[in-house]
């Protein structure tokens, strides 16, 4: 079957600003070159839709667009929500998914697959969907259909970012700015290669803690807070205090980090990355032993700073290394953590 429409969705690495996009905070992701491609073709032999992926050998014949609780939900959700938005009955379509983006390691493969599918549908049906509409639809599919309640960061950077500029996004106002990254330093991504199941329940639990803390302090979003004071501490549970500490300080770190990027100060930028990681580990509770090991190894082998990227619970680390040190750095990491994979 010849592809008649193609859509591409890019992954991202979040440089700093973790778990802030559902708290009304600021984030600083960078779109990466690894992507997911969705090729659409048409056939009258298919009733509803069929899905095939280079990562999972079996072809899926979907007879009804309904939730299955597996990876195909991103495509099924896209068909349902897109169909509803444009009053189109989706049928007789085959979706061929291929990926250079490692799945499930915190590089936003969920947003990438949804964005690629929606772009392919948009091209095919010539619906002229705008970037903002695409972001919103992809967000709704993940939150209301698939059921992991993240924020807007991943969809936003996949659609509006580029590979050479970090996207400084205020997730509340949705205002954003593209900021050049360092010329002589590289953000390397290291997969810890440990099983990571972004369990929606663990992720959603953290989100719940943030929401309940905000409610107790009479705030709409936790990021409205600049400081946790004694009064707040009286109102909150121990767990709530911990997540608040991360959120409030991380939001400040993002603002400082953007300025350091503009000032071309990789040394101080790196320090903030490592502070972010410590806070994600100690306060937010989403790091693992392997991620902590990789962060420590990276920093001891000359990285200016390192942190887990994305939701955590396993997955990958992002680390800032001077260009002329990259080869030596990679060698040292692989010698000391042989499961590691550079993305
Ligand atoms: C996941 C979510 C994002 C964001 C990150 C943590 O990747 O999809 O929206 O919340 O976790 O920063």
Describe this structure in words.
The protein contains ten helices and twelve strands. It is of the alpha+beta class. Helix 1 (73-86) packs across helix 3 and helix 3 (131-146) runs antiparallel to helix 4 (153-160). The strands form three sheets. Strands 1-3-6-4-5 form a five-stranded mixed sheet. It has a four-stranded antiparallel sheet with strand order 10-11-9-12. It has a three-stranded antiparallel sheet with strand order 2-7-8, with helices on both faces. The two termini are 31 Å apart. It folds into two domains: 5-178, Ribosomal Protein S5, domain 2, CATH 3.30.230; 182-342, 2-Layer Sandwich (Alpha-Beta Plaits), CATH 3.30.70. Bound molecules: alpha-D-galactopyranose.
Largest sheet: 5 strands, mixed
Order of helix and strand elements from N to C terminus: EEEEEHEHHHEEEHHHHHEEHE
Query: According to CATH, what is the topology of the largest domain?
Result: Ribosomal Protein S5, domain 2
Quaternary structure of the protein: single chain
Helical element count?
A: 10
Q: Which class of secondary structure composition applies to the elements?
A: alpha+beta
* Overall average pLDDT: 95
Range of strand content: 15-25%
Unreliable segments of 5+ consecutive residues: none
CATH top level label of the largest domain: Alpha Beta
Number-wise, the strands total: 12
Helix content: 40-55%
The total tally of domains equals 2
| Morphology | globular
Break the fold down into its secondary structure elements and pairings.
Elements: E1 5-14, E2 26-27, E3 29-42, E4 49-53, E5 60-62, H1 73-86, E6 93-99, H2 109-125, H3 131-146, H4 153-160, E7 165-170, E8 176-180, E9 185-191, H5 200-216, H6 230-235, H7 238-262, H8 266-284, H9 289-300, E10 305-308, E11 316-322, H10 326-336, E12 341-342
Helix pairs in contact: 1-2, 1-3, 2-3, 3-4, 5-7, 7-8
